[in-house]
Amino acid sequence: MSTWQRLRSNRLALSGGIVVALLAFVALFAPWLAPYDPGEFNAAEVLQGLSRQHPLGTDGIGRDVLSRMIYGSRISLLVGFVSVGIASFIGVTLGALAGYFRGIVDTVIMRFVDVMLTFPTFFLILAVIAYLDATIWNIMVVIGVTSWMGVCRLVRAELLSLREREFMIAAEGLGMSPLRVILRHGLPNAMAPVFVAFILGVAGAILTESALSFLGIGVQPPTPSWGNILTEGKDTLEVAWWLSVCPGLAILITVLGYNLLGEGLRDVLDPRLKSR
Amino acid sequence: MSTALLKTVSLVKSFSAAGNLFGRGGGTVHAVNDVSLEIKSGETLGIVGESGSGKSTLGRLMLRLLEPSAGRVEFDGVDLASLPRRELRRLRRRMQIVFQDPYASLNPRMRIGAIIAEGMRVHDLAPRAEVKQQVLDLMERVGLSRDVFDRYPHEFSGGQRQRVGIARALAVSPSFIVADEPVSALDVSIGAQILNLFIDLQEERKLTYAFISHDLRVIEHISHRVAVMYLGRVVELAPARSIYTSPRHPYTQALLSAVPTVEEKGRVERVVLGGEVPSPLNPPPGCAFHPRCPLAEERCRIEVPELKAQREDATHQSACHLR
Question: What pTM did the predictor assign?
């Protein structure tokens, strides 16, 4: 069976994939899907419940929650992919160097990984954001540079075993530079677990961004993000439950979707891990 | 067959075996121990020995795919260890390796054509437009059909993959090839075809081989000279005919007597060795073969025998106090 067929026969992965695809669609076509401008407020329609005009109600200054949720999905996706992209780039680069060259290079990189892992990531991010402006770009970079260690270890382990494989030795024997051996023969054969880690990492990054925004140090209002909609919702929980429930559910479903897809992919790409 | 193309001088490769958490139980394994030999231009040196005798390690040391712990390797008069990385990479064009396991030696994510073309691209051996044609010619030469150019390795049988491995090595027009058990993983009939391909290619392209195998019959078929290895050392080194007709070292004699033969006439009395190959972590003192040797004397337990020429035949060297 091809990878694709196996993925399709795994129901949980498939449902995760559908959630992920749906969210990507919503984020991509937000301007066409949102019924209102997410920043448009209407003092006459403050904290309105669910209605035909506002399917998910309105918030404290009369903005349409559905539209803000739709635009918020863009933030989540952007933060998720860009920060995990940064983390993967750092992790893959350092991991490949450590695994291929071993010795002192490996020791230095892996001890650095150990040091990074001793910091509680979330507090590290809090500390860094305290010094930097809480722009969305800073947040993505900070999440990226504090979450590459897992990928680094994965790629290192892959390369440690790959470098003993005969096609890698043959490549070296052909006179290729180490860089070329790693890029052409090492990494293409080490990508399956990185891909899985990427998908799972997106879920984590979305959660982190939501938490930061919820605490008021993430994406700053008026830009809508699920985290800062939730913050507003917690103050008006007794009168406007939809303001907390909608972003909460959105975060839950998104993270669940990415996790299901990621774990399904792991089962499909690496059958050895399936039994666990 | 005159000058030495490749020469190893007192080559040693030791690996440190990891001990337990506190460093106990570790030790040093001398996978290759004090090996000095020469391979002449155009000849095939067969390297034979049991698994663990260090023959594969020796093959990789010859190409500096492993760094020697001591001693040196000279290729065409150049000390490989003295070369800067960049120069070494350039020299790799002239020396190639073919591996035992045709399943592990090809990158599963690359197409056959790209695998073979890679060496040409690395060394810029052909203009871009001509690479494909040259690869197709090579494929034809090693017995692959032209329409497999765009296929992936997993679509092939072991013998076909081994042909791809050979074509990859030939693509850079090397003068020296280390063949590391290239037929051991194949069916006998397929192995024979591959072996003949090696022989034909040698004639056509004036290739020099270091041909590693544990199979004495394979070695006999292809080699001009044979080196017999035991626990990291060369115990006997001689022209192939001389080894097979009059082996000197007791280990070689035992090995040869274990080769099954069909003809009643050529059958020699079987020398059965007692015991196992000793652990290379803790090799016996003196001659490493003495615990299993039917002839061992007191001297063999103390002194390491040197590889020296036989009195009656200077080309035949053996490392035994008694022979």
Answer: 0.84
Q: CB–CB of A170 and B99 under 8 A?
A: yes
> Given this model, what pLDDT does residue B288 score?
87
Decide if B164 contacts B196 (C-beta within 8 A): no
Cβ–Cβ of A174/B65 closer than 8 Å?
no
Total tally of structural domains belonging to chain B? 1
| DSSP labels, A95-132 | HHHHHHH-HHHHHHHHHHHHHHHHS-HHHHHHHHHHHS
Please report which helix (H) or strand (E) contains residue B121, including its range. helix B112-123
CB contact under 8 A, A175 and B92: yes
The answer to the question of residue B323 being in a domain is no
Residues A268 and A92: their CA atoms lie apart, in Å, by 21
B241/B252 Cα distance (integer angstroms): 13
Question: What is the band of A64 on the pLDDT scale with cuts at 50, 70, 90?
Answer: confident
Which chain B residues have a beta carbon less than 8 Å from that of A173? 63, 65, 92, 95-97
Q: Which domain does A173 fall in, by range?
A: 66-271
In chain A, residues 174-213 whose CB comes closer than 8 Å to chain B? 174-177, 180, 184-185, 188-189
Helix, strand or coil, per DSSP, at residue B177: strand
Per the domain annotation, does A29 fall within a domain?
Answer: no
